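Objective 1b: paired records.
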Amino acid sequence: MATVSPQRVAFEAARVLVTVARTDSCWWVFGEVGRCLGNAYETRLLETRLRLQHEDCYYAEAGYWRVVLEEQIDARPDVAECLYRIVGAAPLVD
């Protein structure tokens, strides 16, 4: 992985996760996040997907995920590389 600040990884990952949550191609990404962070995070992404279907809350969700991901990277620095990989491979279709 190129040297990228953990905050930048968290920001980009949050943006990508919330963008992908609005699409039908979210299942692969959610599964990868579940493998990287644990099944509870996959479930939380499903909750984000449901909220996005009923509310205009993209920015609130992106902010929430940025904080969550920063905390995970601080606790487990290896998570940054995993998230970087997921972000690079995520299908972004709007």
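Objective 1b, second protein:
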Amino acid sequence: MSKYQCKCGGLILPDFDSFKLADAVNCMIETCKSIGNGQVIVRQKAFVGIITKIDGDKFTIEGNSKTHIFERGEFTPIKAPGPIEYFRIGKCRCELDKEQQA
């Protein structure tokens, strides 16, 4: 079991304060396109990028021959599950469940 998988079945969030320049990270770009009649096409594309600049909570990440700006928490370490897995599987709720029981 990886350090990002909890016994409850959810995924444990990584330490978002530990990123540094040149770290490889998992990223996801999401685009939305209206096709009329209130319908929208949403595309999600995952890629691996390299952190090239850190300015507070804004990170410049290069990947797919492009430069992207992400906020802290919008990407994960290379060894952690990618953003799509966190959306698909869900985050660990153990701490939240403990708070509700107290």
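The first helix runs from residue 83 to 89. The chain is about 15% helix and 45% strand.
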